[in-house]
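User: Can you write out an input/output pair for a complex, sequences first and structure second?

Assistant: Here is one pair. Inputs:
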Amino acid sequence: MIATGKGTSGKPRLQISAGTIHKMSALLTLLILILIFSFGNKAFLSVNNGLTVLLQTSVIGLMGIGMTLVIITGGIDLSVGSVLALSGTTTGLLVKAGVPVVPAMLCGVLVGAACGLFNGFVITKMRITPFVATLGMMLIARGTALQLTGAAPISRLGEAFGILGNGSFFRVVEMQANGFPKVVFPGIPYPVVLLAIVAVAAAYLLRRRAIGRHIYAVGSNEEAAHLAGVNVDRTKMVAYTMSGALAGLGGNVLMSRLVTAQPNEGVMYELDAIASAVIGGASLMGGVGTISGTMIGAFIIGVLRNGLNMAGVSAFIQQIVIGFVVILAVYVDQMRNRR
Amino acid sequence: MLDQTLSDGPLVEMINIEKHFGGVCAVDDVSVDLYPGEVVGVLGHNGAGKSCLMRILSGAMMPNAGKIRVRGQEADIHSPSDARDYGIETIYQTLALADHLDAPANLFLGRELKTAFGNLDDKKMLSEAQEVLARLNPNFKNLGDPVSSLSGGQRQAIAIARALYFDARVLIMDEPTAALGPSETAMVADLTLKLRDEGIGIFLVSHDMNDVFDLCDRIMVMSRGVNVGMHPIRDVTKDDVLSLIIKGALPDDWEPRQR
Ligand SMILES: Nc1ncnc2c1ncn2[C@@H]1O[C@H](COP(=O)(O)OP(=O)(O)O)[C@@H](O)[C@H]1O
Ligand SMILES: [Mg+2]
């Protein structure tokens, strides 16, 4: 069992685990941010803006989940931003070639998974460090996306292509007397629902399945995991493949939202994904991390971006702020470990 | 288990095992056997090749040459799980625990108990771990903590419990008491004899001469990768063994002594 704050007798003890403390402080940070931004701008705390944040966060969140799996094994995946672009453009090209949207998107996600599998292969069989292996894939995937599309965006992909990114559940629209529709409730966007499903599935995998336990064990002590009979190579391959597939899924969501396949999308997204995981308490040393933590981390970044945008802060300053937040989060993490 | 004890053949035979690292010959043409219900002590200086020999049997290291037979059958051991399939369990010198996981997760690592749906059966693993750990250390209560926060004795207990729970036929103990206090050391000694009496064959790597003479039926001494002597414990004295370890040979005037 992954160590939690619960005692063995079943009743919770007073002592709370360090991981829980970290998650609590991250959650508190999120709430404080929301509070500050809502004071600054009344529009921030509206349903509409809330849904916008959710929508904007869903792509980072999807990539952050895959990144978390990889980081728990003690690795890193720098290729997710490029894989996102390659997957999205693959789907776009297939749709353009006349393939129906659903199989085209499945192919796009599979291309992402294949990139991840390749990463896993290079890392485990060729014994290249994750940093270098995925840096290579970052260039390979980006180059392939640009080459395939001639570096030009693919537009006019049809309405069906846009549904995943723009559709929503429970959308309530009223016809007004003047004949124009009025949106009463904008609905829960599909990407948000998708993120929730993927997050729950990934948390289930990590906590309740043997592969999840092996992912933690490999990151905690690779040698011990190997000696205990864990198939270390296979475990890492699974983590990198999932990371690639989720980056591919994120790419499809993003391009669908834009209704355009952009080979230049997703530059530096890997850093947001890594930052989400790290802010959420994952340790780059491996063995530590949770999906719920990463979700909080992704929302901290999403809220920061959105709030700073609404406050009219430039994208450059946003980078600076998020940079400091990452350093602060890791610093807090180190303090708790040093105790 | 006892039917093995009755049959006369050896449980394990390691035959002409060799292991090189570049120019270094860590294990040099070593042959050794182990019978059911006996403890064979493996002795030698640091760097003599004891751990390498043991790791080869436990599947953690591949030999450059030689073969292994288990119960008379040639055994193909390419990984730790292969060795376990032959009933070979190992307590590694480094203990080999995943620090971020708790005791039950470590005990069952690689062999997790699952529910009918293939989910981890954490409840069952916890109760089974409680039971087997209680046999080793009645004070072991904090099973939900990550093992990094446990004492050396508790960590050792987890490593031993692994071997115990999964019904080892052959047990390899590589310096099992190096990190333990006196009472824990005595506990491990008791346990070693108990397991031997159940018919398990045990390789015990140890530097403690008292332990060796209390527990072992035979000893094997390694020096620079070579097996320099394999003797029933009653044929040798502590001085003989020290001479084997230091000089790589028995005293010049040696003859088997029936003590
Ligand atoms: N993985 C390895 N790579 C290179 N050399 C090794 C490795 N493992 C052991 N050795 C060398 O093999 C020799 C035997 O080591 P070891 O079996 O650990 O000795 P012992 O357990 O008897 O102290 C030593 O010289 C050691 O440096
Ligand atoms: Mg050793």
